[in-house]
Amino acid sequence: LQTEPLKVMISGAPASGKGTQCEMIVQKFGLVHISTGDLLRAEVSAGTEIGNKAKEYMSTGRLVPDEIVTTMVTTRLSQKDVKEKGWLLDGYPRSFDQAQSLEKLKIRPDIYVVLDVLDEILINRCVGRRLDPVTGKIYHIKNFPPETEEIKARLITRPDDTEEKVKSRLQIYKQNVEAILSTYTDILKKINGNRPKEVIFKDIDSLLCQVQKEKEKTTKLG
Ligand code: AP5
């Protein structure tokens, strides 16, 4: 009997470090990273119909309508690589309705990780964030500066990373968070995200290893 691969959700306020932790999780566990923010940004830069609809919402820091995002996520989750390698969902669900859409489809993670970070730290992380459009890697002008001058020259800033927009994104997050958490109370793990990224990853790593072991045990018991 083959053990079913891991299914993980990661959540937390804007700039709490979800993308940063996902890079490390993917490297160790080989899960398929599904980030709704990344998927939407790709649609926007490709100028697709979804991208054109989403653009206005994203640039002002509001949530893109559920029906657009939910179709995008459920389509991705049904693909072969996801079924084989397992999934790491980042940035979804972001509202009660989105969480309910997954429940209706019986799509449930093994574990729901929440990164807990203080508001003032979040704002600093957002405003200093830079992205490498070539590798997709996440940098920070102070915390994680780029390795070379060449990378530095090509880094971009997200249009929704101004202090004003971060504050409104944070407010939207706070309005929705409790209703989403209530769907996952039984598998919820809160992690202190105010610490260095390697220290945070150590905690997540041991949680995921534990879940994986439990899954293997249940498979053996049949
Ligand atoms: P999305 O891209 O998901 O944005 P977000 O949730 O606001 O999260 P971020 O990507 O801003 O932050 P992160 O937690 O990944 O932090 P990161 O690792 O980069 O969504 C964008 C938009 O798309 C939304 O506003 C909405 O419009 C739309 N959207 C997306 N999903 C949707 C949905 N389901 N429904 C509707 N609309 C949706 O880290 C941030 C910075 O901090 C970086 O510079 C990093 O280097 C630094 N950093 C990270 N960890 C640490 C650490 N431990 N110590 C110091 N610095 C750190």
Largest pleated sheet? 5 strands, parallel
What Rg, in angstroms, do the CA atoms define? 17 Å
Order of helices and strands: EHEHHHHEHEHEEHHEH
**Amino- and carboxy-terminal Cα gap:** 8 Å
Tell me what portion of residues adopts beta-strand conformation.
Answer: 5-15%
Q: Given the structure, what is the number of helices? A: 10
Strand order of the largest sheet: 2-3-1-4-7
The CATH topology is given as Rossmann fold
CATH homologous superfamily name?
P-loop containing nucleotide triphosphate hydrolases
pLDDT under 50 segments (min length 5)?
Answer: none
Helix fraction bin? 40-55%
Would you count the extended β strands for me?
A: 7
Molecular shape: globular
Q: What is the average per-residue confidence, as pLDDT, rounded to a whole number?
A: 96
| Class from secondary-structure proportions | alpha/beta
What is the CATH domain class?
A: Alpha Beta
Structure overview:
Belongs to the adenylate kinase family. Monomer. It comes from Camellia sinensis (Tea plant). It is found in: Plastid, Chloroplast. This is adenylate kinase. The protein has helices at 18-29, 36-46, 49-59, 66-77, 80-85, 96-104, 119-127, 149-154, 163-181, 197-221; strands spanning 7-12, 32-35, 87-90, 111-116, 129-131, 138-140, 188-192. It has a 5-stranded parallel beta sheet, with helices on both faces. A two-stranded antiparallel sheet has the order 5-6. The protein is built from 10 helices and 7 strands. It has 222 residues and is α/β, with parallel strands linked by helices. The longest helix is centred in the C-terminal third of the chain and has 25 residues, at 197-221. It has a single domain (7-202), classed as Rossmann fold (3-Layer(aba) Sandwich). The N and C termini lie close together (8 Å). Helix 7 (119-127) packs across helix 9 (163-181). The mean pLDDT is 96. It is 54% helix and 14% strand. The relative contact order is 0.19.
